[in-house]
Amino acid sequence: MKKFSKAELIEYFAENEFFVINTHIFSQNTSKYVFLYNETISKGIVLKDYNTEEELKTINEEIYLVRETLKELKFNIWNIYYFILVNNESEKNRKIYSIERDSRNMRKYVIQSLDDVNRVPFFKIKPSSEVDSSILIDFYGFIEDSQDTEINNVIAEIINSEGEYGELSKQKIRGILREKLSQGETL
Q: Labelling 61: which of 25, 90, 96, 106 has CA 20 to 30 A away?
């Protein structure tokens, strides 16, 4: 597990088109938070260092204030991720990671090394030597070329429900599948 500094992490994000913006919006805590945003994919990251277990006790209150501030600025808060930077070995590692499972206020990730960034759905750190363009697959082309009409019908329904550009809830997907099954289609 490679340790990192906050500056290294910010530089890595900048290389991936996440740029520091609006840090002045956290005026009472300017030294604590860093806000990075990628306009291409409309996603943002809030970074904050936590050095003691005591600081972690008020994390949800802090995240709530950050969330409300970003909401006032018209950011889609569901596309903003809160990174909890812990750069030391904590005596209560499990407890720290349980913070991620608390879904209140924002999506949270505990980052202790650059490898932890791999757990973020839209972010995969790969050294350039690992990328082999010969194995890249055009998944949209693969789906469009599918000969299975039932699968094509479900995919078309998901796209019609704006699932191509946004997230659909499990309930919505189950509803689509239930509807298709009730129409006699076999999946």
A: 90
> Read out DSSP for 21-50?
--GGGGGGGTTTEEEEEETTTTEEEEEEE-
- 50 and 122 part of one domain: yes
Main-chain dihedrals φ then ψ at residue 18, nearest 5 degrees: -100, 115
Query: Using CA atoms, how far apart are residues 82 and 86, in angstroms rounded to an integer?
Result: 13
Q: What SS3 state is found at 30?
A: coil
pTM, two decimal places: 0.60
Q: Which structural domain range is residue 25 located in?
A: 6-129
Closest of 146, 154, 151 to residue 175, by C-alpha = 154
62-103 pLDDT, tens digit per residue, is: 889 989 989 998 999 899 999 988 866 554 566 677 788 777
